Amino acid sequence: MIKRSRLIRWKGWLFILPGLLFHVFAVTIPAMLSLYLPFTEWNGISMPRFIGIDNFVEAFRDKIVGTAFLNNVKWMLFWVTIPIMIAFGLAYLLFKIKRGQTAYQSIYFSTSIITVTVAGQIWFWMYNPFSGINFYLDKAGLGFLEWPGLTIPSFALVSVLLADMWRGFGGNVIWLLAALTQNDKSIEEAAKLDGAGRFRILWNIVLPQIRPTLVVVTLLTALGAFGAFEMVYVMTGGGPAHATETLSTYYYSLSTRGQRAGYGSAIALFQMFIAFVLIAVYAYLKKKKGWDV
Questions:
Q1: Alpha helices of 97-151 — where are they, by DSSP H?
Q2: Distance of CA 165 to CAs 29, 78, 160, 227, 245, Å?
Q3: CA 138 – CA 280 distance, rounded (Å)
Q4: Which residues are CB-contacts of 211 (< 8 A; sequence separation ≥ 6)?
Q5: Torsion sign over Cα 194, 92, 213, 283
Q6: Quick check: 266 and 48 in contact, CB under 8 A?
Q7: CA-wise closest residue to 78 among 283, 258, 247, 225
Q8: Per-residue pLDDT tens for 36-70?
Q9: Are 119 and 163 in contact (CB under 8 A)?
């Protein structure tokens, strides 16, 4: 009886063995290597050589890392403010209309299903001074409306951000609209009967009810901002003169063209540390404010 019980127990382990082995080789070992490689000198081909914290010291002195980090911060501040406010405004308007809501949802979400490569190429063409919008504005005598786009470093990051917002904000509209539809409408009706204005209803009743979704959307947006890569890589590759460089594009170029995978891994580990800090801040605020998320 005891032997049979043990056999049944081992059968369970045998069933999970394939999934366990896959997890070990596909997740655990790469994760352990990602913690070891930042402490090595490695070109991505030969055997890594342990060098201690030299990569982190170099990253601390590397001005491009500082520029990339600031660009990630700007990226996050932009995304957690303007696109989310626009998304909420559109979601609130959609929530109020009775007809054509699905059509408008489709229109707003349509840009989100376009691949980053295609979206980036569309905006890259629009910013092209010889064939894009600026060219036609100049032809029409509206040269004063020209946008420098990607040609001037001080405008390049904003230009890429606008392209990324055009492609991605539709997803937030859908998230927030779904949250609005779950609100308790009887509370709004009661507030209207008590004479509350639209702004007061929005601020004191609507926003508190969708706060869990709003917090999650903001957190995911902030985390995504520090992983910004695709749109930047497609449109500028981090240029001109590292003006649009992000941590992701920098360690990618170091690990591939620069053949400095060890140093790139150190920057990637720093990026992961930032993600942990953001999550810790979120957990602290959630506990202190008593958010039910």
A1: 101-110, 116-127, 133-139
A2: 36, 9, 9, 15, 17
A3: 50
A4: 291, 293
A5: negative
A6: no
A7: 225
A8: 999 999 888 889 999 999 999 999 999 999 999 99
A9: yes
pTM confidence score:
0.84
21 residue type, one letter: L
Q: Is omega for the bond preceding 212 within 30 degrees of 0, making it cis?
A: no
Query: Mind listing the pLDDT tens digit for each residue in 136-156?
Result: 888 888 877 878 778 888 889
High-pLDDT (> 90) share of the chain, %: 33
- Geometric angle at alpha carbon 172, from 166 and 175, rounded to 5°: 155
Torsion 200-205-211-213 (CA) sign: negative
Structure token digits, residue 210: 């969708």
**CB of 125 within 8 A of CB of 131?**
yes
Q: Which amino acid is at 243?
A: A
How many whole angstroms separate alpha carbon 37 and alpha carbon 47? Answer: 11
Place of tokens 């003169």: 241
